[in-house]
Amino acid sequence: MNNVELLAALKEKGAVIDVVMKEDLAIIESPLLAEIIHHAIFQGGKRIRPLLTLLAAGLIGTPPADTARLAIAFEYLHAASLLHDDVIDHAILRRGAETANTIWGMEPVILAGDYLHAHAMALASEVGGPAAMALIGRATAAMVESEFLQLRNAHEILTSEENYFQVLRGKTAALIAAACEAGIAHNQGTAEQRLALRTYGTNLGLAFQIVDDLLDYLGDPAKTGKAVGNDFQEGKMTLPLIKTLALADARDQEVLTGLLKATQQERSRELALVHGLITRYEGFSLARAQAEALLGEALAGLAIFAEAPAKQPLTGLAHYVLSRDK
């Protein structure tokens, strides 16, 4: 299955997820709440988390009829986290459109995020029972704690690779892993099968973010929607830079740390220099190699499953993560 076929298949399944969400959200009585949530959820996105729940459930037979209702809980949690992130960051744009907090202000948007979180928990309890509730509870706790870790790291100019991955596991990987494990658990998967999907989801999430880090420096802005070097301009320590600093000689370390302490305008002027240093110390290739290793471990876990219609897109997703250009 090539990327074109994979994305077409996922888009078709994603349309089904959208229908389920629209039916589910029809219960909202407040017009303002409904408007904010519609803006947050139906403004784009590939529905990767709920799709992973459906695919994971399908690894061991036909998923239960209500799996899609469990799956949408993970899209709600993802949307809630984005609403809250945009408020915290005072973000103006997301996916090329105005953020909800820009349109409606902070208070109603925070409340809308709270509603989505509460509704996701209710769905998990109703459809998935204690197992799904536990998974969502742990993932949510990890996401919140990662925000606090990120706040702590923001006061430090240099971030270690260990701290980078600690934040990433909570901020990105925890929810993806929970979405995968919830699917297999909902179809009465064994402890071994649940662990395999947890590993797959965790490593998929970590690798996805590493590729994001690489695209920030190496991607085409017309495809990524971000200016080249945007993370560095904002003073963010991502994996290519972290690996470069660990290998650079004292003089080059001093240049890079000096720029991290400088103004955003100064960092913008020296992007070519920084790009050259990361290339010289193989920061890009080392980061990519780590993403490849993570995805190899993710796919190795799927070996315990017999061939099934759901296995091919799960394998394809791992390869897509490495080859994507946006």
Structure explained in plain terms:
- The chain is an all-alpha fold and 326 residues long.
- The chain has one domain: Farnesyl Diphosphate Synthase (Orthogonal Bundle), CATH 1.10.600.10.
- It has helices at residues 3-25, 31-41, 48-57, 67-89, 100-104, 106-154, 161-186, 191-218, 221-224, 230-233, 239-247, 250-261, 264-269, 271-280, 283-301, 311-323; strands at residues 93-94, 97-98.
- It has a two-stranded antiparallel ribbon.
- Helix 4 packs antiparallel against helix 7 (161-186).
- It starts with a helix and ends with a helix.
- The mean pLDDT is 94.
Please outline what is shown here.
By secondary structure, this protein is an all-alpha fold. It has 16 helices and two strands.
* Helical residues, percent: over 70%
The CATH architecture can be given as Orthogonal Bundle
Output the helix-strand order.
Answer: HHHHEEHHHHHHHHHHHH
Which structural class should the secondary elements be placed in? Answer: mainly alpha
Predict the CATH topology: Farnesyl Diphosphate Synthase
What kind of oligomer do you see?
A: single chain
Amino-to-carboxy terminus distance: 19 Å
Indicate the overall shape. globular
The gyration radius over C-alpha positions equals 20 Å
CATH class: Mainly Alpha
Number of strands: 2
What is the topology, as strand order, of the major beta sheet? Answer: 1-2
The tally of helices reads 16
What do the pLDDT scores average to?
Answer: 94
CATH superfamily: Farnesyl Diphosphate Synthase
- How many domains, as an integer? 1
* Percent strand: under 5%
Specify the biggest β-sheet: 2 strands, antiparallel
Low-confidence stretches: none
